Amino acid sequence: MTKFLHGLSSVKSFVALLWTSKMGRFGLIIFAVFAVIAIFAPFLRTVDPNATGGCENMLVPPNAQFWFGTDDLARDIWSQLLYGSRISLLVGFTAAILAVAVGTTVGITAGFYGGKIGELLMRFVDFFMMLPRLPLMIILAAVLGPSIWNIIFVVAIVSWTTTARVVRSQVLSIKERAFVEASRCIGANDSLLMFGEIFPNVVPIIFAQAVLVVTTAIYSEAVLAFLGLGDPTTVSWGMMLHFAFESGVMSRTPNWIAPPVASIVVLILGFTFLGTAVSDVLKPGYREMRGL
Q1: Residue 189 has what pLDDT?
Q2: What 8-state DSSP symbol labels residue 61?
Q3: How far apart are the C-alpha atoms of 275 and 207, rounded to whole Å?
Q4: Please, what is the Cα angle at 14 between 5 and 106, to 5 degrees?
Q5: Residue 241 — φ and ψ, nearest 5°?
Q6: Per residue, what are the HEC states of 114-149?
Q7: Please, what are the averages of pLDDT over each run of 10 residues along the chain (292 residues)?
Q8: Would you say 52 and 75 are in contact if contact means Cβ atoms under 8 Å apart?
């Protein structure tokens, strides 16, 4: 219980520190708004986003009944937009967790052991970084099939390399410090040194990387879904744009196109602000610079 309260206090302190940054405030507000929308979507005057209607309700412009109008199957665009936020956040956070977990493991292992093991792992990282991301994601998504979990896997596969390189560079410095050598002298094994001594000191940079990976994941899901590689049974912003393109009326239905595009841009912008703020807050001397 004491550890939980300490962890909660640390989170509150970190959020308060983020709030001192203008970018951090913007990022937190945008994230909070979309999180509330995703959680409370069923209570925000929505209907089943997949429910179709009669011919008389097809491509209806915004009105009192359909706030953002309807699509070519008479589905409510407002409901699709709100429920689509769930998919964007799910893909963003899940892909970020997977990518950061893989990148952190590879980076810590390569930095700690160095030598042939480190070189082999980093050549593996370089190989993945050399591959063009978008074509690779398209190929993998096409091979694996249309599924939201396949999209998450594909995004994670191409997003872990930067984390690996950043973590490795940090580990190379940290492993030479006195507290690591002291632990080694009293008999700590490699696992304890890597994940008990070194890992806690790279958590800040890992967190900053995770926030940036979320933006990549949200954008990638939208692109893949727009190209027809998303799950057609799942409502997402990218699938909304895909169906609008497939309908042939994309240029004549701004009320169908503008909401998902604006949502994607704003959410990515919010996480970009948040990622930049996290990087700034974690820099040494930030508190002193702000007079905190």
Answers
A1: 82
A2: P
A3: 9
A4: 95
A5: -70, -35
A6: CHHHHHHHHHHHHHHHHCCHHHHHHHHHHHHCCCHH
A7: 44 72 88 93 89 83 88 90 92 91 92 87 89 88 89 90 90 83 80 83 84 89 89 88 86 88 93 84 67 58
A8: yes
Residues in the chain: 292
Concatenating the DSSP letter of every residue in 236-264 gives -HHHHHHHHHHHT-GGG-HHHHHHHHHHH
CA-to-CA distance for 213 and 217, rounded, in angstroms? 6
- Distant-in-sequence, close-in-space partners of 209: CB < 8 Å, separation ≥ 6: 100, 103, 162, 163, 166, 167
Show Cβ contacts of residue 34 under 8 Å, excluding neighbours closer than 6 positions: 85, 88, 89, 263, 267, 270
Contact predicate 71/53, CB 8 Å: no
Tokens (6 digits) for 95: 């892909």
**CATH numbers and ranges of domains, the chain:** 87-284 (1.10.3720.10)
